[in-house]
Write a structure and sequence with these properties.
alpha/beta, 274 residues, 5-stranded mixed β-sheet
Length: 274
Amino acid sequence: MNLFTTLRMITASLVTAAPLLLASAPVALAAPANPYNLIDPTSISVGTMGDSKPYAFVDADGKFTGFDLEFFTNVAARLGFDKDHITFTGQDFSALIPSVANGRFDVAVAAVGTTAARKKMADFSDGYLAGYLSILTSDMSMSTAHALVGKRVGVVQGTLQESYAEKNFPGADIVKFPDNNSAISGLNSGTIDGHFLDYEAAKQYGETFPGLKIALNVASFDAPAGFVVRKGNDAFREALNKSLHEAMADGTWKTLYEKWFPGSPMPAEYLPKK
């Protein structure tokens, strides 16, 4: 066998083996697209509360529900995430923003008001909820800020109510609680004289405990609730903004608001344009 014949046989063998070699070589799988910089690109991890009815709470079946959570679920669906790809986890309100900032959650959804101080820790979507703050009490004399002088007033730590009370109720003794349930327990036991919380939540607790009434309402439209996202995650924040405005424009927001807050006033800017 001459050299030319030998080289031709070797070349033919290599050509025949090439497809087998390629077939057995490891294939590099493309990483899943993650346009919103989520912890898991296939799902959204949501930090929320379990006792802030009607905004975010756990129902009798152990499921998270409420206006904020239903609204967010609709907004997320517009981004391609159905309810099976959204995970809600409850925790104390004061831990929500830090948990988003440190990467535990993709977003916090629990009627979190937008303030300058909070925006130092995280970014917020556009506002989707505004309302009133209320004093819930059995002492109806607590109907003005002046009447709170010397009274023990409960607030949930880290909320707008806490900062508002400390600024506007200087004569009151502000008592901080981790959540509304513990504050209401303190109110019923006499540990505090009144609890300062969101109007809708106060209304719900008043229905549960007939001895408690709303004695004071304070308008609060300067810090609307927004979805909290990690600072600098503009892609996610802007996508949420686009979807929440679509939900307002097509009447979804209005339908959910009427479901969860029957009879309550609705800001015109959140309603479909006529």
